[in-house]
């Protein structure tokens, strides 16, 4: 089974206070989170790391199945009923601040209204946004056990740590989520992978959840910092925070050029500048952490595990050739060829070329230690279905990581060992070769890294002419010992 894309990946954590047993920890989907209760922990009932790793995947699947069941209970009709309750009295007329279900119901009702703006009045939408922005549950806690009439909530501006938000839309400027469909229909998205488009759209929606679904002309620089601070609190990496804020910034760039107020004479732009363009993110988020190569004992442990022959073959190809997950998973038998010297190789210049550069469309020499089954027709790994973008790497990497890489890690801190690590392993093994040592250019062509530094494509082609001969690559990869494959 592969990782369910709707949920965040689980982690395996040893908890000393629980007898040093290993627990599978899952982050609940937003629909099931209540206050600070955002995680689900299930014990593997063992203190042995390797045994816990073997039980991990099944427990993970059971957790996700339970999430599916709970979310299925949050039906659309229930959401509409919550919205009606919210519209009538903003939740409960006298919700006890200790009644967490009551406050969660109000939160769900408000979110339902925000997610369906076209079916609700602006007054109701503003009320829901006000509720979410001012975190009524916080006020409930501050009430020290007193009952709160939710129709008479405290004025946020009277709180010393609250920032008043003027939600009035005086110019009828479109809000973030109203402009989002217009932006996503722009011709700039033509030819962009569906997954990339959907990711950008989801990040912009997440931004609107954090700062509120504001009119575009009410967004200020401070909202950019508010986004960065919130994402930083969620332990996002600096690069991830940049991706989120950049997606919102690009939407604002689009609005600066194309959002026109036609109610004025003459017509005017709603925005003259992008307020968060060039936002400095210095100090926000953690720095990027690179994947790490496996240690030798981990390589032995990896291939010592029980696994289907197709998984073993895929891992063997990845390690001995340095190919990317998609390049290997999408291989066809027709791409397996033999050159004039009788050397086997995969021809990546035909079939599904994953990367949009000429250095990926290469020949991949196969070392003698790589044993292949009898040649057939069609895809070598037909079990891996492709997504809308014709890729399979997401499913492949999640399956291989969960089943074979997580169990061989040294502990929770050893979290940079993944299937992509095998490319790093091959590079390290090539660097250790001597008499002669392979050149960096030949290693780049073997892995298809395209690590040409400051050289342009035309400069590199003039310097190295073209993909080196299969014999050159074979003489390098065939000198590497792979005792873990035996």
How is this structure best described in words?
The protein has 17 helices and eight strands. The protein is mainly α and 486 residues long. It has three domains: 62 residues, no CATH class; 175 residues, no CATH class; 190 residues, hpI Integrase, Chain A (Orthogonal Bundle). The strands form three sheets. A three-stranded antiparallel β-sheet has the order 1-2-3, covered by helices on one side. A three-stranded antiparallel β-sheet has the order 6-7-8. Helix 2 packs across helix 3 and helix 3 crosses helix 4. The longest helix has 24 residues. The radius of gyration is 27 Å and the shape is globular.
Topology:
Elements: E1 11-15, E2 21-27, E3 39-43, H1 49-72, H2 76-89, H3 100-115, H4 122-133, H5 136-142, H6 176-184, H7 194-211, H8 221-233, H9 238-258, E4 260-261, E5 268-269, H10 296-304, H11 309-321, H12 325-329, E6 336-338, E7 344-347, E8 363-365, H13 393-405, H14 421-431, H15 440-447, H16 457-464, H17 470-477
Antiparallel strand pairs: 1-2, 2-3, 4-5, 6-7, 7-8
Helix pairs in contact: 2-3, 3-4, 6-7, 7-9, 8-9, 11-14
Please outline what is shown here.
This protein has about 475 residues and is mainly alpha-helical. It has 17 helices and eight strands.
């Amino acid at each position: 089974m592969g990782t369910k894309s709707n949920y965040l990946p689980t982690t395996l954590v040893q908890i000393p206070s629980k007898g040093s047993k290993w627990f599978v920890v899952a982050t609940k989907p937003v629909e099931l989170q209540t206050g600070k209760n955002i995680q689900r922990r299930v014990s593997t009932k063992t203190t042995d790391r390797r045994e816990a790793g073997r039980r991990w995947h099944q427990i993970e699947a059971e957790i996700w199945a339970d999430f599916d069941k709970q979310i299925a209970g949050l039906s659309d009709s229930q959401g509409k009923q919550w919205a009606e309750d919210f519209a009538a009295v903003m939740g409960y007329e006298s919700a006890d601040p200790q009644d967490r279900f009551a406050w969660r119901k109000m939160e769900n009702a408000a979110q339902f209204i925000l997610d369906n703006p076209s079916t609700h009045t602006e007054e109701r939408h503003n009320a829901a946004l006000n509720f979410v922005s001012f975190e009524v549950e916080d006020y409930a806690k501050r009430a020290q056990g007193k009952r709160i009439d939710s129709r008479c909530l405290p004025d946020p501006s009277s709180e010393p740590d609250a920032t008043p938000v003027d939600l009035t839309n005086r110019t009828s400027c479109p809000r973030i989520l109203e402009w989002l469909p217009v932006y996503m229909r722009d011709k700039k998205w033509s030819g962009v992978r569906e997954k990339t488009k959907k990711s950008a759209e989801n990040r912009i929606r997440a931004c609107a959840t954090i700062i509120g679904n504001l009119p575009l002309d009410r967004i200020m620089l401070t909202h950019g910092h508010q986004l960065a601070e919130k994402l930083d609190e969620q332990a996002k990496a600096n690069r991830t925070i940049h991706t989120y804020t950049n997606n919102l910034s690009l939407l604002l760039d689009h609005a600066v050029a194309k959002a026109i107020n036609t109610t004025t004479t003459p017509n005017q732009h709603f925005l003259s500048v992008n307020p968060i363009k060039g936002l400095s993110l210095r100090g926000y988020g953690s720095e990027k952490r690179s994947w790490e190569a496996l240690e030798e004992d981990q390589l032995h442990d990896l291939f010592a595990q029980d696994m289907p022959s197709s998984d073993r073959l895929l891992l063997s190809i990845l390690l001995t050739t340095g190919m990317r997950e998609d390049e290997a998973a999408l291989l066809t038998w027709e791409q397996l060829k033999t050159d004039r010297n009788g050397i086997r190789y995969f021809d990546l210049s035909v079939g599904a070329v994953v990367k949009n550069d000429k250095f990926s469309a290469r020949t991949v020499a196969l070392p003698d230690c790589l044993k292949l089954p009898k040649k057939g027709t069609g895809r070598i790994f037909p079990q891996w279905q492709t997504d809308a973008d014709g890729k399979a790497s997401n499913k492949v990497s999640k399956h291989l990581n969960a089943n074979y890489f997580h169990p061989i890690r040294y502990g929770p801190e050893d979290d940079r060992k993944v299937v992509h690590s095998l490319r790093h392993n091959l590079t390290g093994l090539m660097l250790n070769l001597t008499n002669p040592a392979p050149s960096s250019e030949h290693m780049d062509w073997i892995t298809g890294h395209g690590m040409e530094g400051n050289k342009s494509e035309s400069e590199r082609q003039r310097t190295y002419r073209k993909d080196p001969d299969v014999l050159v690559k074979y003489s390098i990869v065939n000198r590497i010992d792979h005792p873990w494959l035996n």
